[in-house]
Amino acid sequence: MKNHRMNLHQIAEIGFQEFQTKAYLYEQVKNCGAVVHEVGETGLVLYFDNQKEKTIAFRTDIDALPILEETGLPFASKREGFMHACGHDGHMAMLLGLTDYIAKNREKMKYNIVLIYQPSEEIAGGAKSILDSGLLQHYQVQAIFGFHLWPTLEEGAVFSKSGPLMAQSSETDIQIFGKSAHIASSSEGIDSLEVAVRLMSEIYDYEKKLPEEMLHLLKFGEIHGGVIRNVLAQEVTIKGSIRSYSPLHQQEIKDSLRKIANRFEEEFQAKIEFIYNDGYPAVLNNSELFDKIKSISTLRVLEHPVLQAEDFGVYTEHFPCVFFFLGVGDVPALHNPKFDFNMDVLDNGLEFYKALLEIENY
């Protein structure tokens, strides 16, 4: 698995362009005894027909990020400007390890098994491409499992929880349209910059009053407007994110922002528009499925979900699923150009995958 990780790390490719990565993966799995399906140009789905009643699935993502690597590793990415800075190389290595284990131990398997080598987790559409292939439905998959390497959690330990694990993300742009005028004649214009500042203050006051049990994030990281110091800004754009674990909560926050904006439009005679990119749904672990696996001795239960998003949430909308974090300890954050991890944790991940195969009656 370590060799797989190092080899894959060097050929980092972004979503739906993982051609060399797919070729490498195909070369490793083509003789494993599974039926190998190609999904789109870069996805692979393997099916091990073990003549069992039920079928379970395991998924890895295979894409990298457009990041210039700064690790200095001897196996650093050979594709300048692209890097496996989110651990997907490790995820693939573990699933290749599982592929090999299943191929060599098919007589021990309690289930038919689907293995998903999914493109484009970082860019929307990867999980959807797998669902749209119809293969998971065709093979009547009963449960889907997946891993993500996770900094700050204890190295080598496996963590998860029932219910909400990762958030839905709505990337949010607020566009404020005023009327340009020289500041010496400001009464003739509509100051979109003033509206933006006051609106931001109002939104953050609203956010502070949301009930504590409504786990959420409502933050903005960019604001752009104006062209010169002595002219009122014609237009301002504020960019941020709304995150929660419930579509109802997402909509409640959006509705509240619209009501605030309506008041500002009336007061300042400005026009305010919202643009949302709703991204991935929340990762919601199936409670019944989680109860069946929580007896695995190496599984640790997280107290709280995280606010990061992952397209594994697309699967949780349609199938019983459980997603796990594999701790990598005190290392640079995900998406950091210096991200790296101790590859010994891959053995822990594979052992946990094997333990999942031993559970009865999914």
From TrEMBL:
Cofactor binding remark: The Mn(2+) ion enhances activity.
GO molecular function ontology, one term from the record: metal ion binding
Gene3D superfamilies in UniProt: 3.30.70.360, Zn peptidases
Protein name, entry field: Hippurate hydrolase
Native source organism of the sequence: Pilibacter termitis
UniProt binding sites for Mn(2+): C86, H88, E122, H148, H335
Swiss-Prot/TrEMBL cofactor(s): Mn(2+)
Segments forming domain Peptidase M20 dimerisation: 174-264
Pfam families, per database record: M20_dimer (PF07687), Peptidase_M20 (PF01546)
Record keywords, A-Z: Hydrolase, Manganese, Metal-binding
Superkingdom of origin: Bacteria
